[in-house]
Structure formats: C-alpha cells, structure tokens
Amino acid sequence: MIWVKGLPFKIAFFMWKVWKAKLPLDDFLKKVGYCMPSKCWCCAHPDEESLQHLFFRSETAKTTWKYFLSRAGIAVEGLTLHQAITKCWTANVCLRLKPALVKLRKPGMDMVPHKWKDLLVMMENFTPKLKVTKVMWEPPSTGWLKVNTDGASRGNPGRSSIGFCIRNENGDIVKSVGREIEETTNTVAEAKAMLEALRFCRLQQYSHVWLQTDSMLLKKIMDGIWKPPWIIFEKVEEMMQLMSGGNYTVTHIHREGNKLADHFG
C-alpha cells in the first residue's frame, strides 16, 4: 500500500480482508446462501452493494483510487481491484515503512516480507503468541495486614458504592466494609474506598499495611507517576498524609484477584 502520514496501520489487515473477499457484503452473503435485495445507499445511481462496487467501481471509489494512484504515477483505467492493490503495494516507497507498520500491529511477527503477496501468506499463517498471567490473592508477610479496596459507579456517574477488606497473614478477615455513597464516578469511588481504608488503619494504629487496588489509575497516582485529576486531588493529598510516617505499600491487582473487596463494594 501507499502509506500516508497518519493513516492507521491496521489498514493492512483490512486490505487482506478485501483481497480475500472476506467482508460480509451482499455478494459474499449470496455465496453462503442468503439472497436479499441489494442496493448501495451511498450512490446517486445505486448498484448492488458488492465488493467490487463498494471498493472499485462506484463513483466515490473511482475518485479515491484516481486521486491516490495518480500521486504514485499509476493509471487506474483498465485495472481490476486486485491489480490496483498490487500496484499500490509495489510502488516505489520507503521499503522499511510497510514491515514497520505491520510489526507495530503484530509485534510477534519476525522477518516481515516487503512484497504484498508474501505478506498475505505470512498474515494468513500467523498465530499470535498468547500471554497468560496468573492472578491470585496472596497473603501478606507476618506482622503485616493486607487491605484490598474497590469502588464502583453504575452509570459513571451514577449510583455508587465502596468497599474494603483487611486480612492478616493467615488470610483471616480483620475488618470488612461495604456501603453505598453519593452518586459519583468510578474514579472518585475508587479513591474514596482507599481513603476510608487508610483512615481506618491509622485510627487502629496499624503499622505495616499493604494496600492493593484494581485501579491502575490510583496505583500510578500513588507512585507519583501520574498527576491526580482535580476531582480527587484533595483525597489523594489526604491519602499521602495518612501514609507518611508508617510502613505502607501500594500495589495493583487484577480484578479477578480483588473479588472480596469487589463483593463488598
């Protein structure tokens, strides 16, 4: 393809679908036994909404092909759709660009070929590597307490609730809280759940506390990587003050490992 600055790189995969006629257009549906009236609603003089019509023969398609192919010195007259695609792909452009864009979309691909035909074969036979992450709740070390927090908003903003649970090194529940709060957003609910958990821990004078949240936003904020949104700025400041002078650590956990706090919230 001729790649224009800013054009989404995923078009390579889409063009493979066009090349193989894999799009669910009316001519494709006919092949699998579904016959229905067909008309392209985008045209002043509509024709059957087929692959060839939609992407090559309609007035809009012709104008688009002519505009871009002429920039590469290619005449569209007399070409078929497949020939036009091939000429685009084999046009004299930066050879490093096409494989780089494909690798950006499919980072698991190695030795991406430059030729369109070879790239099609590779994409058809490509099997992505699956990354599996084991998610489980882990008990804290001896002398520590683990606090899992969660907040939720139905509607975002909408009806909201918070919850947190505190467990010791044996996994026994020391304290659990779950209640409805004012209508707000998910972000505010998550922050309020952590804030109330910290207030309780300081009130009970717990000295070693492991806080765990399924909100990556809060984790990044508490680490100082991201700045807090204005709507939770004051809550974050109070949380930082509550954590000062004590042994507190904050980590992120996937929702599957935060089920108990999620249940209370």
Radius of gyration: 28 Å
Biggest pleated sheet? 5 strands, mixed
Which stretches are poorly predicted, pLDDT < 50 over at least 5 residues?
Answer: 1-7
Termini distance? 51 Å
- The chain-level structural class is alpha/beta
Give the % helix.
Answer: 25-40%
Average pLDDT works out at 83
Total helix count?
Answer: 11
Strand order of the largest sheet: 3-2-1-4-5
Give the H and E element order: HHHHHHHEEEHEHHEH
Give the number of DSSP strands.
Answer: 5
- Name the overall outline: elongated
Strand fraction: 15-25%
Q: Would you kindly provide a written description of the structure presented here, covering whatever features stand out?
A:
It contains 11 helices and 5 strands. A 5-stranded mixed β-sheet has the order 3-2-1-4-5. Helix content is 40%, strand content 17%. Helix 3 (51-57) packs across helix 4 (59-71). With 265 residues, it is α/β, with parallel strands linked by helices.
Please specify the SSE layout and strand pairing:
Elements: H1 11-19, H2 26-31, H3 51-57, H4 59-71, H5 81-89, H6 97-105, H7 116-125, E1 145-154, E2 158-167, E3 173-184, H8 186-203, E4 208-213, H9 216-222, H10 233-243, E5 247-252, H11 259-264
Parallel strand pairs: 1-4, 4-5
Antiparallel strand pairs: 1-2, 2-3
